[in-house]
Amino acid sequence: MSSVLVNSHPWSPTALLLSHRYQNLSPKSASLSFSPPNPNFSFSIRCSSSSSFNDSTDPPSKPDNEILPVPDLEPISKYDDEWGQSGVVEFINGTPVPDPAVVKEEEEDDGGKLWELKRALVDTVYGSDFGFRASAEVRAETLELVSQLEAANPTPAPTESPQLLDGNWFLLYTASSELLPLLAAGSIPLVKVEKIVQSIDTSSLTIDNSVTLSSPVSTLSFSASASFEVRTPSRIQVEFKQGTFKPPEIKSSIDLPESINIFGQNISLSSVQQYMSPLENAVEGLARTISGQPSLKIPIPGEGTKSWLLTTYLDKDFRISRGDGGLFVLVKEGSPLLDM
Fold this sequence. Notes:
By secondary structure, this protein is of the alpha+beta class.
């Protein structure tokens, strides 16, 4: 017999009893009571039964501790989700962990895109003499490629990655106004700006900028050394201390080009070749004279020696920096990009 009893005030004679007989069921005795904060009302449910109400034809009741068989389930791979898609291995603290294979594939895709952008940038500035002879179209295309690389910068904190930042960096392109006089030296007949290299050593907090000029007779190198302080994860403050001029390296032979361009006119040098033998003897004597001479070091005074450098892109072989002098695009020594 199951019953539901609703009582009003405990001293009220009014009571409502609803009852209903359930056949073919043999529940265990149970009760449930609820007492709201209002003391004038109470609600209780009582349920009781006896085996005498059971139908004799019903099967015997199953024991409470019986273990029901579990249907066979198709095993789910740890790399599949409920939709049969891969990409999640497990959850750690409620956060899905990506499939390592998928992550590796995405990194390879990103690396491939960055490589294509870097190669396109190298091809764009080729033959521009570090940007000195770049046309307006080349400059615009260069800035577009630089912006795309900066947006995909894989190293947001360059100063915290010395293994990437340290080394010798060869300048490919610059829009720096401070370097214009130096780059203009390459327009002098028979003089060429061979290379501009920036060497960074984070352990000693030093930078060395060196320039090499070449001519048919000799090679001349000079540099400026500086110290720097880390101001932010991507910005350093630089202060130049000293300039160094190395003795020129005299070449063993004079290698004249077939012609030179002077004010837009090509002048042949074939007639000069016959006078090279006496000149080479004189140059050889000069080389013996200056060989072994020490470098000339000159301190760099003044407030103009201070500048800042912000690295906006950095990976194992490519760097883009911006300073108070302009934009710099550099490639690390040993990179295959230098051979393109």
